[in-house]
Q: What sequence folds into this?
């Protein structure tokens, strides 16, 4: 039994030594620890600021496009409304300038009568 106890004691002594070796090799695997230099920090900071600036520019252009699209939509609605009003006015003009209406107005309001003998046709030719 002494042999078994000695064997276990030897294993316990060997294990802590192996663990310490593993810990040392994990901290330094033959490579020195990497440190970031001042120049690299400045470059990374500059790159970060550039990304932030570009993001802000893109967002501002998108906001501008959104408002311009709203303005364009508003103007298109106004143009469509004005076209509708113009069409209605053309129909009204056609109705008001019809010869029947003019004859009726001349007879009723002005007391004029149509005398075919006094009508003269003037052409622009």
A:
């Amino acid at each position: 039994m002494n042999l078994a106890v000695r064997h276990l004691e030897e294993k316990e002594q060997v294990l802590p030594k192996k663990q310490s070796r593993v810990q040392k090799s994990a901290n330094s695997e033959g490579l020195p620890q990497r440190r970031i230099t001042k120049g690299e920090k400045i470059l990374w900071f500059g790159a970060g600021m550039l990304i932030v600036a570009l993001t802000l520019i893109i967002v501002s252009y998108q906001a501008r496009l959104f408002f311009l699209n709203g303005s364009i939509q508003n103007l298109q609605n106004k143009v469509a409304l004005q076209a509708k009003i113009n069409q209605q006015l053309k129909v009204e003009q056609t109705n008001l300038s019809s010869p029947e209406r003019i004859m009726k107005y001349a007879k009723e309001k002005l007391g004029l009568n149509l005398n075919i003998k006094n009508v003269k046709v003037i052409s622009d030719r």
User: Anything to note?
Assistant: The helical segments are 2-27, 38-96, 99-108. The radius of gyration is 49 Å. The chain is about 75% helix and 0% strand. Residues 47 and 53 are 10 Å apart (CA to CA).
